[in-house]
Specification:
Belongs to the GID4/VID24 family. This is Glucose-induced degradation protein 4 homolog. Pfam families: Vac_ImportDeg (PF09783). One of its GO terms (cellular component) is GID complex. By secondary structure, the protein is mainly β. It has one domain. Helices cover 7% and strands 31% of the residues. It is built from 2 helices and 8 strands, in the order ββββααββββ. An 8-stranded antiparallel β-barrel has the order 1-2-3-4-5-6-7-8. Strand 1 and strand 2 form a beta hairpin. The two termini are 19 Å apart.
Length: 218
C-alpha cells in the first residue's frame, strides 16, 4: 500500500491471458507456518528518489486453502505519514502451484516480462526459470519445494477511506520459506516506485500467540 503517485504514463505492455488450471499437479507442501492464525511482522521499503522510507508492517493470515491455491489476510502499516492510525487492508492471495495459478499474472497491468523480472528477484526462483521458459512452468512439481510463491492483492481498506493518500492498485510478488516462515516480497504498480521490498518474519510459535487489534471485515 504505497503512497499514491499521479502518473499519466500508459504502461507499454498489456496483461497476458488469464490463468489456466492444470489438474495434474499436486499442491505445494503443507506448512504449519503458512496457515490461518499465523502472524508476521517486518517492514516494507517505500523509498523514492526523494527520500528513504520504510514502514513497519504486520500481516495476519485469516484463511488458507492449498488445494485451491487461495489464502487471505490483513496487512497493517504502522507508521504511515499523515495517517492518524495504523492503516489496515484486506488482501487475497494466489498460490503458484501450476494447477490453479502459474507464475504469469495475466492481470493487474502485469506483463509476462514484469512477472519474470519480479520473480527473478528471489534467489529461490532461479532453479525454476529454465522450465518456465520451456513450458510456462506448467510441468513443475512444487510438492517438495521448500518455498511457496504467491501473489497478494489488497482488496480494500479496512479502517480508513480511499482518500487516505495511499493506493492499493498494485499487488505483491511473494516468496514464503517453509523452513522458517520468513516472507519476502516486491510490490508492483506501474504508477509507484519499483521493487518496494516487503520483509516479514513469523511472530507466533503457536496460532494463539499473537493477534491484531479487532477489526470488522465487511
Amino acid at each position: 500500500m504505497p503512497v499514491r503517485v499521479v502518473d499519466t504514463a500508459t504502461p507499454s505492455s498489456q496483461p497476458s491471458p488469464g490463468q489456466e488450471a492444470n489438474t495434474g499437479h499436486p499442491s505445494p507442501p503443507s506448512c504449519s507456518l503458512l496457515s490461518a492464525g499465523r502472524s508476521f511482522a517486518g517492514t516494507q521499503n517505500v523509498s523514492s528518489l526523494q527520500k528513504d522510507e520504510a514502514w513497519k508492517v504486520n500481516v495476519r493470515i485469516h484463511g488458507c486453502d492449498l488445494d485451491q491455491g487461495y489464502l487471505c489476510g490483513t496487512m497493517e502499516a504502522l507508521n504511515v505519514p499523515l495517517a492518524d492510525t495504523p492503516v489496515v487492508t484486506f488482501w487475497e492471495g494466489e498460490i503458484v502451484d501450476a494447477k490453479n495459478y502459474t507464475f504469469f499474472t495475466g492481470k493487474w497491468e502485469a506483463s509476462p516480462e514484469d512477472d519474470i523480472r519480479h520473480w527473478s528477484k528471489f534467489p529461490s526462483f532461479t532453479p525454476l526459470l529454465g522450465q518456465i521458459e520451456t513450458d510456462g512452468g506448467k510441468s513443475l512439481d512444487f510438492s517438495n519445494y521448500p518455498y511457496i510463491f504467491m501473489r497478494w492483492k489488497e482488496q480494500y481498506f479496512v479502517n480508513v477511506g480511499v482518500d487516505c493518500g495511499l493506493t492499493i492498485a498494485g499487488f505483491y510478488y511473494v516468496c514464503f520459506s517453509c523452513s522458517d516462515g520468513s516472507i519476502s516480497g516486491f510490490y508492483y504498480d506501474p504508477n509507484s516506485s519499483p521493487f518496494q521490498k516487503l520483509e516479514l518474519k513469523c511472530t507466533n510459535e503457536k496460532k494463539s500467540g499473537f493477534t491484531f487489534s479487532s477489526y470488522e471485515l465487511q
